[in-house]
Specification:
Layout lengths: L1 H10 L31 H6 L2 H12 L8 H40 L6 H4 L17 E2 L5 E2 L8 E6 L1 H4 L8 H9 L2 E6 L24 H9 L4 H11 L7 H10 L7 E5 L3 H5 L15 H15 L4 E5 L6 E2 L5 E2 L12 H15 L2 E3 L1 H4 L18 H15 L5
Parallel strand pairs: 3-4, 3-5, 5-6, 6-9
Antiparallel strand pairs: 1-2, 7-8
Helix pairs in contact: 7-15, 8-10, 8-12, 12-13
Length: about 400
């Protein structure tokens, strides 16, 4: 002190220094809102703050609290609105599914209800107005119609089986009816027990002698004599089973001048269907081992060698199938040899005629059908006199279709 006193006295200046008051903020104070508490500057604290800091503090004090965001509520409402059509669609689909199931159950429940023939035909038997009839002419090189006028100058060659051979020598034989009503020269080369589709591709008289009497091999006989021995061998192997018409047909066809023939008619019944012969071949339309192929091969031979001849194909009339008990059954139910219904044979025959451009007479639907067949058949397939009459009328109509 003495040294200090001396210095002060030596300077000649009065000593007037003072220590400023220091305020310490209590951070643990419970009442933060009290003056001087943290975040609330006291009057003395404000003295130590700059104007910029004081503005920041005053801004924080005047900020208004944020209101709750309503976007979440809007999203929830939107979700609820979307659920309504979604649920409605599923309800509608459920109703449709239930309705379909109800209809199916009702249909299946009534599926086995028996309906008698009397109930089916209570309003009459009905008629078949839609047939596959197709009438086509033959033209000469000048475009003139050929083989349209009937009379003694018209020669008709007929090939077939039972429709032509049943009662062939009586006035109500089918070929005789046609000859009598048209005045034409009708050559009947039908062979009883014959069929259209060959059993064997290559003829073997010792294995299948009846193949010689299919339309293809008979047509070959009109073109060449190379197969003449087939018939001698066939009759030798058949012996007593040789068809009674076989000798006459062979002699006629091996000597006929086809240039004098105007019309060739193919008329075979449903024998091929009953025997389960092949119906057609997708790979070979002239496969002689099929019902339609044998016919197409025959037509091709005629058209290539005798283009002046008009060809008429008469489809099979209706024939019943026979069940295991020997009872007649619809040929649209019974199938033989894993083949097809008789109606399918007929339809495919029509297609072949379209492809070959020849006349087709639909006897299955247009002449004798399933409804009236008992009136025109002697058994499940053979025609009675009334049946032959109807078939003859249909053939005559086709023959004279293009007459003036």
């Amino acid at each position: 002190m003495k040294k200090h006193s001396e210095s002060s006295q030596g300077s000649g200046r009065p000593v007037s220094q003072s220590i400023p008051d220091i305020h310490i903020i209590d951070l643990e104070a419970e009442d933060i809102d009290a003056p001087g508490a943290a975040g609330q500057p006291s009057q003395n604290q404000e003295d130590f703050l700059s104007e910029e800091d004081q503005e920041d503090l005053s801004w924080e004090d005047t900020e208004e609290p944020e209101e709750p965001d309503s976007s979440e509520e809007n999203d929830e409402d939107e979700k609820n609105r979307k659920k309504i059509p979604f649920i409605a669609t599923h309800v509608a689909l459920l109703i449709v599914v239930v309705a379909v199931l109800v209809v199916l159950i009702v249909r299946l429940t009534n599926l086995s209800d028996f309906i008698s023939q009397e109930e089916i035909f209570s309003d009459g038997e009905g008629t078949y107005d839609n047939t596959f009839d197709m009438y086509l002419p033959v033209l000469d090189s000048q475009g003139n119609l050929l083989a349209t006028e009937t009379g003694k100058d018209l020669t008709i060659l007929m090939l077939g089986n039972s429709p032509l051979t049943d009662s062939k020598d009586s006035p109500d034989g089918l070929a005789n009816i046609v000859a009598e009503r048209t005045g034409a020269n009708v050559i009947n080369c039908g062979i009883s027990g014959s069929y259209m589709a060959c059993v064997r591709l290559h003829y073997r008289a010792d294995l299948q002698p009846l193949d010689a009497y299919t339309p293809y091999w008979l047509t070959v006989l009109t073109v060449t004599d190379a197969t003449d021995y087939y018939y001698a061998d066939a009759m030798e192997n058949l012996g007593a089973d040789t068809p009674p018409e076989a000798e006459y047909v062979y002699e006629t066809l091996s000597n006929i001048d086809m240039n004098t023939v105007d019309v060739v008619v193919y008329m075979y019944d449903g024998t091929d269907y009953l025997l389960g012969h092949g119906m057609y071949s997708d790979d070979n339309p002239t496969d002689i081992q099929t019902f339609t192929g044998n016919m197409e091969a025959s037509i091709e031979l005629l058209q290539n060698n005798f283009p002046h001849i008009r060809i008429i194909v008469m489809s099979p009339a209706y024939a019943f199938g026979v069940d295991d008990n020997g009872e007649y059954i619809s040929s649209d139910i019974k199938i033989y040899g894993n083949q097809h219904f008789l109606s399918t044979y007929s339809v495919m025959q029509y297609k072949s005629c379209v492809d070959r451009g020849v006349t087709y007479v639909d006897n299955l639907y247009g002449t004798i059908n399933e409804d009236d067949a008992p009136q025109y058949l002697t058994d499940n397939i053979h025609l009675n006199a009334a049946g032959r009459e109807r078939m003859a009328e249909r053939l005559i109509y086709a023959l004279t279709y293009f007459n003036d």
